[in-house]
Amino acid sequence: MIEFRGVGKRFPDGTVGLDSLTLTAREGEITVLVGPSGCGKTTSLRTVNRMVEPTSGSVHLDGRDVAEGDPAELRRGIGYVIQQAGLFPHRRVIDNVATVPVLQGLSRREARARAAEVLERVGLDATLAQRWPAQLSGGQQQRVGVARALAGDAPVLLMDEPFSAVDPVVRVELQDELLRLQADLGKTILFVTHDIDEAIRLGDRVAVLRVGGRLAQFAPPDELLAAPADDFVAGFVGRDRGYRRLGFVPATALRLSDLPTRVEGPDGAGPPGEWTVLLDGDRPAAWLGPDGARHDLGSLYVTDGGPDGTAASDGAGTLRGALDATLSSPAGRGVAVDGEGRYRGGVDADDVLALLERDPAR
Amino acid sequence: MRAFGYDLDVLVVAHVLLALVPVLVGLLLALPLGWWAHRSPAARRVLVPLSGALYTVPSLALIVFIPVVLGTPILSPVNVGLTLTIYTVALLVRSVAEALDAVPATVTTAAVAVGYRPAGLLFGVQLPLAVPVLTAGVRVASVSAFSLVTVGALVGIQSLGTLMTDGFQQDYTAMVATGIVGSVVLAFVFDALWLALGRALTPWSRAGV
């Protein structure tokens, strides 16, 4: 648990980096600090490991004031992931990851063994261990950065815009990876970003900061989208927040409809005369138009968990997933599958809209 | 090997020692000064212009002036060695500061964040990463020292420069040419050694994607 108690930072030139931040990042949760540049989010992150010393207030880690004791010792017990990874260019990947265990006093051999475990954990191939950082892609470097932060076995991770320097596709992969790791590890994570979508995607709770380091709102993402505290938060969260919030609303009451289906086989059945789902075994393969032409399925509505029983991926089983399915289908009706990708039924836009009507937070 | 009435081996060894020792000592002195200039803008405002000014003092003037100040014998090789050490420091203070500046801020920030103390940061992260820029500076200082050593011959300090001064007095072109070619070759050989050392210390810098 990380507690900010009235933390302020006034720089020698008189600018206020942080006004008086009071906020608790709960044990085992991802707490996101988000805001425009100059809002003090990185400054507040750095007060936790004393790379910035506050000019007022105090920061407590599991009840202990971080100002007590040796800063280097404190930092070895806190994982830190920086923008652009900040890997040591002169050390091979394995030794980058082994840095903290070595500083903690492990022998080089033990530290490397530990590093190899962590590399595997973040999904990096063992063949990369002997490479230099310059030989890795941006996404791989960032994974090594995360591995280095995890290698010290710290219960607390600080992440400062860790994914902002990679392209959007890789960013989503890294975000998924982080959520998967977090489901396993249950770290207390303080995550800084300027990207509200990233904040909403990753955060158990999101703190929106305004310029000068004043806390505008601190709430779970769906609450932030449903009930922004003021115009600043509403503006920052964005115009389509109502739509994005649907990603947090489970579509439990959604009834699936029956769609006309046809099993893929030798041609000759002729045009179906209406929109029909073409099945390949028990999986949907395509839409058949009334004239018999094949069309893409559009995005599928996944009714429950992923293929291996893990948590559902983005928007799955939510009103947003259901609405996306109906909007992206050429037939005007969405196709629902289960976590294994098996055909389950259809989603009618009318049913989704009826659920939206009844949504109390609207 | 003897030629022109001199033992060439002795001249070569004297030449190398007289140039190399000041470069090594100068580098050791420039490291803390350059680190200080890197850390403190106030120190930099004094150290960098001062070392630049030192380099403009003519070498012969220093070689003659040092015995007056320190009381060393006028024919002592120490005068030449000290002069070259001063030049090396003058050249390298700025190089060291700039080599440390060139270490990316994200890397030093990350190093502090994972728990390096200042000494560990300097020797474990900053200096290894400063080697490429530092090597460039040391090579300039080394070539400069290997050529300036010859000036010592004017006041009787033996080196390959002695062949130049004596050869000039005797109007003996082959002797002068031997001195010139020999000192140029030595400068090149040690330049290549510094380059090789720099490369050996930085296998990571050639690891392109």
TrEMBL record, chain B:
PROSITE patterns: ABC_TM1 (PS50928). Its main location: membrane. InterPro entries: ABC_transp_perm/SBD, MetI-like, MetI-like_sf. It is found in: Cell membrane; Membrane. It is a multi-pass membrane protein. Keywords: Membrane, Transmembrane, Transmembrane helix, Transport. It comes from the Bacteria. The chain crosses the membrane at residues 12-34, 46-68, 74-92, 99-116, 136-160, 172-197. Signal peptide: none annotated. SUPFAM superfamilies: MetI-like (SSF161098). It holds the Pfam family BPD_transp_1. Residues 12-194 form the ABC transmembrane type-1 domain. Belongs to the binding-protein-dependent transport system permease family. This is ABC transporter permease subunit. The lineage of its organism: Bacteria, Bacillati, Actinomycetota, Actinomycetes, Pseudonocardiales.
